[in-house]
Automatic annotation (TrEMBL):
Lineage: Bacteria, Pseudomonadati, Atribacterota, Atribacteria, Atribacterales
Pfam families registered for this protein in UniProt: ABC_tran
Record family assignment: Belongs to the ABC transporter superfamily.
Record-annotated ABC transporter domain positions: 2-230
GO molecular function: ATP binding
Protein's name according to its UniProt entry: ABC transporter ATP-binding protein
Keywords, in A-Z order: ATP-binding, Nucleotide-binding, Transport
InterPro entries tied to this protein: AAA+_ATPase, ABC_transporter-like_ATP-bd, ABC_transporter-like_CS, P-loop_NTPase
Superkingdom to which the source organism belongs: Bacteria
Amino acid sequence: MIQTIDLCKEYDGFKAVDNLNLQVEKGDIYGFLGPNGAGKTTTIMMLLGIIPPTSGKIYLLGEELKEGNIDVKRRIGVVSENQYFYKEMTAQEYLEFFAELYEVPNAQKRIDTLMEAVGLQGDKNKKLGAYSKGMQQKLAFVRALLHDPELLILDEPVANLDPTSIKQIRDLIEEENRAGRTVFISSHLLSEVEKLCKKVAIINKGKLLAEDTMDNIKRKLSDAMHLQVELDREATELQPVLQSFPWVRSVSIENNRLEIALSTDRDYRLELSKTIFEKGFFILSMTLKEMSLEEAFITITQHNISLLTRGEAQQ
Ligand SMILES: Nc1ncnc2c1ncn2[C@@H]1O[C@H](COP(=O)(O)OP(=O)(O)OP(=O)(O)O)[C@@H](O)[C@H]1O
């Protein structure tokens, strides 16, 4: 659906996007993540043909993106961070205008269905000048979906929205994805990306650090498996025993409860259980503390850059 090959964008010798190779498959909900200045907007502008790459290639829907290739753009829906609206038009008029432009069949039915889905049906005769930022954002979604695009490209799609609206948009994205649309989302809101995306790419300083499933990314970003273990009795004597293993990152023991962090190069839970048992203890419970993407990746630090790239180096 989207493929970039060695995509580069330079500004006066500065590499805003540096040899980027992305692969978005049909049916993906694909998250495109990175800190401020990472190169996300520059990449999207190139995908949309708004700015030309310095070098490299872009394939959209199987076709190479070239200047004047209008056909492929008709098959894409876009919601960008900044929307420009004609303030004097009502939402209904605005959507009719686009429906005509894109020759949408049964346009009014499609407009009503989508406006209902984002909770704007009651406001469709309001002028756009009276729309709040959040309402404008939702309207941009409706416009992007109006012509039934195969691919949706969303740049910070929920930036101006309150929690209820975020939920409406998330449900809509999921529904449209189930209906066969591929979705590419660039966002800072990691918790949103986590809820929606099946696959994620992380970029920093124009370079791709990782492109993988959400689970694998989380595993890479968290350099330890955090466990809470409950034993049958007081266990402070286990502290030096457990600490002596290279795969135990840290351990703290309070009465019969252990908080333990294990290395993630493989699953050490069986070794841990055996060791505890051999020392004469019984495990009453063992709970894995799942780390959210947000926790694991609040900012891209030097440390987690090395975690993300370490896996690639070993492969
Ligand atoms: N027109 C331009 N001229 C020079 N440098 C630019 C230009 N546009 C972007 N850059 C630089 O390219 C880098 C990537 O910017 P870009 O806007 O793509 O990042 P981003 O990941 O979208 O960031 P944000 O999350 O803050 O929107 C930044 O260092 C930025 O200063």
